[in-house]
Amino acid sequence: MFLLLKSFYLYAVSLWVGSLFFFTVIGAPMAFRVFEKEEAGRYTGAVFPKYFGLSYVLGLMSLVSFYLLTKENMGFISSINLLLLLIMNVATFANGFLIVPRAGLLKAEFYRSGDRSYYDRFLRLHSVSMVLNGLTLIFGLMVLGITSLYLTF
């Protein structure tokens, strides 16, 4: 059971951070270089639900499996790692369930009405989403570093 749990943790955290890295650094920026702005927006709008769905599953797998692996011997480093995983999960759920859907509604309302104030509010929420995603990626890289350097389970 221990080896299976350890494998779940390692696979989940590496796939989660890898998908965060790919979409943040390559996937989304490349869509806006290859496609026209509206088409790139439609593409990323179609990818986001799958991206967040995958992040929810992998994030929860990472958090729960890490907790189960370390709960009997929770040291300082393990506590930091667990805290980072918790923050990453909260940021991902907030981004996927609150910020991105609201931003999508604002963008749709802008296209429907032509009222620039909707687009300005969309841009503010989009900035918040990008910051949360960037912080989640940075914390994820920290988790990978901590896992590889300090945690032996």
Query: Given the C-alpha coordinates, what overall shape results?
Result: elongated
Q: Can you write the helix and strand succession as a string?
A: HHHH
Overall average residue pLDDT: 94
Number of helices: 4
Query: What structural category do the secondary elements indicate?
Result: mainly alpha
Biggest β-sheet description: none
Q: What distance lies between the first and last C-alpha atoms, to the nearest angstrom?
A: 13 Å
Please count the beta strands (DSSP E, at least 2 residues each): 0
Give the % helix.
Answer: over 70%
Number of domains: 1
Radius of gyration (Å): 18 Å
The poorly predicted ranges are none
Q: Strand fraction band?
A: under 5%
Description:
It is a single chain. This protein has one domain. Helix content is 91%, strand content 0%. The protein has helices at 2-34, 37-70, 76-113, 116-149. It contains four helices and no strands. The two termini are 13 Å apart. Helix 1 (2-34) packs antiparallel against helix 2, helix 1 runs antiparallel to helix 4 (116-149) and helix 2 runs antiparallel to helix 3 (76-113). The model has no long low-confidence stretch (mean pLDDT 94). With 153 residues, the chain is mainly alpha-helical.
